[in-house]
């Protein structure tokens, strides 16, 4: 294995200042290491001059914008906690995160001006409001603010961190503070991630394609950490399946990260579209963030070969599993074996369950690796009732005899029908493989006899009409693919599935819209 030069931005800026650190794959705009170094230093100085010190919080409300990278690195070298805010939130939702994070400064953009305008009267405790690429009333021009600041590093740099919020798919998002391994900016990448990225073949000069929103944990962290090894990040402003293939060929991408819904979109491309580009430069295609339907995963391995890798974890950093293509073919459906922490599968009372039996997934560590911001009760609730350093985030699953973990679903998504536990994920995984289905979600709805029954919500593929005949066709399609008791009793249609760009399905929206409908 190649010895990696784990460093930080300043070292690479001095070693190869003209190398491209970031490329906007949508527009072709780029930023060199020297430019990223200088711009991040200027913002770090600006925030320091305002009185922000290590441990203080800032937020950014941005689309996938080149400025995300300098803001991220400014926070990392000024000891600040940076909270990226989901650009698709309402003003009330975004203001809640900014207030809850106690951010003293927020950075937005002209592209996000409508959301930013909605925040004007909702952020009384956040006086510093900067906007890039333009300005609206109540905000100051980012470019003007940082222009007079020094381009050299702060005299005393300190390691900052991301304080990310959970996706809030079932309720209010929670701020997550990961335990820091160091306060030295040169220790930006922790020892476990050095091992992880080494296993994924990271190297000085690699080209990394970032396909997902930069407000999400893994895309932003991986993009920032690519600069810690001297690589180039190519980011997409918005995911498009065919364009992602074109970018791989254009920039000779070596590494990429995906979510399963992107794989679904890729596999639904026509054969000429799939074969139109040279993808031979790719060495590692990594996916995570949501469970991947088995047929989708197998289809990607067949197409791209044994470069498909998967990891399972959570923003909280409780633990992690990994699996490569060869392991997946021998353990289809698995998300791998533990590479961080020890897995325990437990029932609702915290009792460990036998091999092969599904329950709540806990990871055992030597300490609790995170805390929920301003919410010690939620932090305690994530811990095992007997073993305080075992933590869980609500995922259900089981482990086979070889130690491979299989996800069944989120605990909060489980349907109980006639006393039987039904995990919607298995039904959703089967439905999305139908050629007339673009996306699918499954929830429980009231049932006078069974308590709950299964309801499927379908986003039809482009050009497909949402008809009663299609509903019957999909129910028939499921027979033999899932157990009889899992067959939906009713089917509804939706124009666009409320799926977050990170790949997670926003089930609360489905419950709000369809959850009170009785079964047909």
UniProtKB/TrEMBL annotation:
Which residues belong to any copy of the AMP-binding enzyme C-terminal domain?
A: 427-504
Which top-level group of life is the source organism from? Bacteria
Gene Ontology terms, MF aspect: CoA-ligase activity
Q: Which residues cross the membrane?
A: none
Domain (AMP-dependent synthetase/ligase) spans: 11-365
Per UniProt, the keywords (alphabetical) are:
Plasmid
Name it: Acyl-CoA synthetase
Species name for this entry?
Cupriavidus oxalaticus
């Amino acid at each position: 294995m190649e010895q990696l030069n784990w460093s930080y931005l300043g070292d690479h800026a001095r070693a190869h200042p003209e190398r491209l650190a970031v490329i906007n794959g949508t527009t072709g705009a780029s930023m060199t290491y020297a430019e990223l170094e200088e711009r991040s230093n200027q913002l770090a100085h600006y925030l320091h001059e305002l009185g922000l010190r290590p441990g203080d919080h800032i937020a950014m409300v941005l689309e996938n914008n080149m400025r995300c990278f300098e803001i991220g690195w400014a926070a990392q070298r000024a000891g600040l906690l940076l909270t990226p805010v989901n650009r698709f939130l309402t003003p009330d939702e975004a203001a809640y995160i900014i207030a809850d994070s106690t951010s003293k400064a927020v950075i937005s953009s002209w592209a996000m001006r409508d959301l930013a305008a909605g925040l004007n009267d909702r952020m009384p405790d956040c006086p510093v409001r900067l906007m890039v690429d333009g300005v609206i009333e109540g905000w100051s021009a980012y470019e003007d603010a940082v222009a007079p600041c020094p381009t050299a590093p702060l005299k005393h740099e300190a390691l900052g961190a991301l304080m990310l919020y959970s996706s809030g798919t079932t309720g209010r998002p929670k701020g997550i503070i990961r335990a820091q391994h160091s306060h030295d900016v040169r220790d930006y990448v922790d020892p476990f991630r050095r091992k992880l990225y080494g296993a994924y073949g990271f190297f000085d000069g690699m080209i990394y394609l970032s396909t997902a929103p930069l407000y999400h944990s893994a895309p932003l962290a991986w993009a920032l950490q690519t600069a810690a090894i001297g690589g180039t990040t190519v980011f997409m402003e918005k995911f498009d399946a065919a364009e992602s293939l074109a970018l791989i060929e254009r920039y000779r991408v070596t590494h990429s990260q995906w979510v399963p819904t992107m794989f679904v979109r890729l596999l639904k491309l026509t054969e000429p579209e799939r074969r139109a580009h040279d993808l031979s430069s790719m060495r590692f295609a990594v996916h995570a963030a949501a469970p991947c339907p088995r047929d989708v995963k197998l289809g990607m391995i067949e197409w791209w070969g044994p470069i498909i890798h998967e990891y399972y974890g959570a923003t909280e950093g409780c633990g992690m599993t990994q699996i490569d293509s060869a392991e997946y073919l021998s353990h289809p459906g698995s998300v791998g074996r533990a590479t961080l922490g020890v897995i325990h599968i437990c029932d609702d009372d915290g009792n460990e369950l036998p091999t092969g039996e599904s329950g709540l997934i806990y990871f055992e560590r030597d300490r609790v690796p995170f805390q929920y911001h301003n919410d010690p009760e939620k932090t305690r609730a994530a811990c095992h009732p007997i073993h305080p350093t075992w933590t869980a985030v609500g995922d259900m699953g089981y482990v086979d005899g070889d130690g491979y973990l299989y996800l069944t679903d989120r605990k909060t998504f489980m349907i109980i029908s006639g006393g039987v536990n039904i995990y919607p994920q298995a039904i959703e995984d089967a439905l999305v493989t139908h050629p007339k289905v673009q996306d699918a979600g499954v929830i429980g709805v009231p049932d006078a006899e069974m308590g709950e029954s299964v309801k499927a919500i379908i986003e039809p593929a482009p050009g497909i009409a949402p008809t009663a005949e299609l509903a019957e066709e999909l129910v028939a399609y499921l027979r033999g693919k899932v157990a009889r008791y899992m067959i939906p009793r009713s089917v509804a249609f939706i124009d666009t599935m409320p799926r977050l760009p990170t790949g997670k399905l926003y089930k609360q929206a489905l419950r709000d819209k369809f959850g009170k409908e009785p079964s047909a």
